[in-house]
């Protein structure tokens, strides 16, 4: 289920580190009070990663209750953005990249030039 991002209206990453010992109530409180987002938005998934990058938790409101998912990789690791403590909305394509172990946020992004380079 977590490998396929289709069907989600919005996908949020809780960047930085999250204590994965937290359950549904603790993660929902983080979403509400730290990130100021609505946890009852249907088809919106919230993803969390702890210090070990080989496991994530996902929280999803299904209309009548929460679904808590936990994924631990056998090999490899998730390339999780660790720089800020914010909720970052990602696209379905970025979600698929994350599930494949690819970077969602480049560490050294390519700077976009405002003026084209001049010919010499």
* Overall average pLDDT: 82
Largest sheet: 5 strands, mixed
Work out the helix count.
Answer: 2
Would you tell me the structural class of the helices and strands?
alpha+beta
| Number of domain units | 1
Helical content (DSSP H or I, runs of 4+): 10-25%
- Which parts are unreliable, with pLDDT below 50 for 5 consecutive residues or more? none
Can you tell me the overall shape? globular
- In spatial order, strands of the major sheet run 4-3-2-1-5
State the distance separating the first and last CA atoms.
Answer: 54 Å
Order of helices and strands: EHEEEEH
Strand proportion, as a percent range, falls in 15-25%
The tally of strands reads: 5
Describe the structure.
The chain is of the alpha+beta class and 120 residues long. The chain contains 2 helices and 5 strands, in the order E-H-E-E-E-E-H. A 5-stranded mixed β-sheet has the order 4-3-2-1-5. It starts with 9 loop residues before the first strand and ends in a 21-residue tail after the last helix.
């Amino acid at each position: 289920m977590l490998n396929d991002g289709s069907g989600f209206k919005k996908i949020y990453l809780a960047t930085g580190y999250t204590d994965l010992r937290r359950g549904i109530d603790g993660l929902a409180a983080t979403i509400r009070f730290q990130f100021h987002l609505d946890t009852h938005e249907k088809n919106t998934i919230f993803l969390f990663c702890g210090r070990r990058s080989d496991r994530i938790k996902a929280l999803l409101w299904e209309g009548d209750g929460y679904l808590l998912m936990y994924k631990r990789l056998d090999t490899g690791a998730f390339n999780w953005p660790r720089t800020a403590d914010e909720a970052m909305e990602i696209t379905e394509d970025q979600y698929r990249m994350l599930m494949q172990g690819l970077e969602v946020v480049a560490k050294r992004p390519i700077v976009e030039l405002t003026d084209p380079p001049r010919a010499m």
